[in-house]
Write a structure and sequence with these properties.
This protein is α/β, with parallel strands linked by helices. It has 11 helices and 8 strands. α10 packs antiparallel against α11. The protein is elongated. The two termini are 45 Å apart. The structure holds uridine-5'-diphosphate and magnesium ion (MG). The site of uridine-5'-diphosphate has 16 residues, from β1 and α4.
Length: 331
């Protein structure tokens, strides 16, 4: 009876951690997550039923074995495995949706120890004070290279200009209550960009700032190419402003073109037509370039609509550490 009372009084927390080829860093950071969870449980802020959920995102190294070993050695560690690599956002989504019905709060965090694990205490406190979403926000980026800092800050600016509401310097370190998750489950889109979508769900929110450190081991999975792709995905999944920009630009180019035609006509009528092919070539190239670029952007939207209409599953969980192996024979 007493235990039941305690369970009613304290929120169950699941820490959701996506892992892709992280055999180098998991053995280092897993004990740190465990320590923080112990601290949260010992100070009575979260229930003893709280768990650390690793989401294996189709790793090709020993990551899943490490997760299984952790789960076998300590009931507070659990894990799910995706059937293949689907990318960071889908891995986090899989973990959150897995946690939705079994928890009161979730905290998503990368597994490389870059985000200050000890900020979780403050996040839970903010939740206990009434916030349903708590964003982890980086206070400074000293440890990132100049290039990463420059591109990352440019990214937030571009995103906000393009009409996505992002919390500045917030990545995917955040606390979400299961109430918010229930509402978020109604967002069925296949193109997911969590940091843009969660603010759209609403509910009272708070921010906790922390310092971002360097990766504890292993290397980043976000080289420039992937970052640009993420930025593009973010913009196109949240806003149609690029299409509006293209339309405006097309209008401006048309006006200039119209003036050009008038000018050409007047010149011809005044019999002073110039025989310069350079100007013609320049105009053709310029317009050709703009048209292809614009078509490309519109094509991206069409492609997204195509993917959305298929309604393919956003993640496929192939294994869970708390379930027996799926492979059993009928005979
Ligand atoms: N990750 C993932 N699937 C992927 C790529 C990355 O689950 O396809 C995870 C990765 O294991 C890490 C987090 O996403 O926990 C962030 O990745 P990373 O640290 O490489 O990115 P960075 O911090 O350099 O932006
Ligand atoms: Mg990282």
């Amino acid at each position: 009876m007493q235990e039941e009372k305690a369970a009613v009084g304290k929120p169950i927390l699941w820490i959701v951690i996506p892992c892709y080829n992280e055999e180098a860093v998991l053995p280092v950071t897993a004990p740190l997550f465990r320590k923080e969870l112990a601290e949260l449980m010992n100070t009575g802020r979260v229930s003893g039923k709280s768990r650390i959920l690793f989401v294996n995102d189709g790793s090709r190294d020993r990551t899943w074995e490490i997760i299984r070993d952790l789960a076998a050695g300590d009931e507070h560690f659990i894990g799910i495995s995706q059937s293949r690599n689907r990318g960071h956002q889908n891995a986090v989504l899989a973990g959150l949706m897995e946690a939705r019905e079994k928890t009161d709060i979730t905290i998503s965090i990368d597994c490389d120890g870059q985000d200050d694990i000890t900020a979780m205490g403050e996040m839970v406190d903010a939740y206990l004070e009434g916030a349903e979403v708590v964003y982890g926000v980086r206070s400074k980026r000293d440890t990132d290279s100049f290039f990463k800092r420059f591109t990352a800050e440019g990214f937030y600016r571009l995103m906000n200009r393009m009409g996505a509401e992002l919390v500045f310097n917030h990545a995917d370190y955040r606390l979400i209550s299961s109430r918010v998750l229930d509402s978020f489950a109604d967002f069925h889109e296949v193109n997911i960009f969590l940091r843009g979508l969660i603010p759209l769900v609403g509910y009272p929110s708070a921010q906790v700032s922390y310092e971002r450190a360097e990766r504890m081991a292993g290397k980043s999975h976000y080289p420039l190419g992937k970052m640009v792709a993420l930025a593009f995905d973010g913009v196109t999944s949240l806003s149609v402003r690029p299409i509006a920009v293209i339309t405006g630009f097309g209008f401006a180019v048309s006006v200039v073109g119209f003036i050009g035609i008038l000018w050409a006509l007047i010149m011809t009528m005044a019999s002073r037509a110039v025989a310069g092919w350079a100007s013609t070539v320049c105009i053709i190239c310029f317009l050709g370039g703009i048209q292809l670029l614009s078509l490309g952007v519109i094509g991206q939207y069409v492609g997204k609509i195509y993917m959305e209409t298929k309604q393919r599953p956003r993640y496929i969980i192939s294994e869970r550490t708390w379930e027996p192996s799926k492979r059993h024979y009928k005979g």
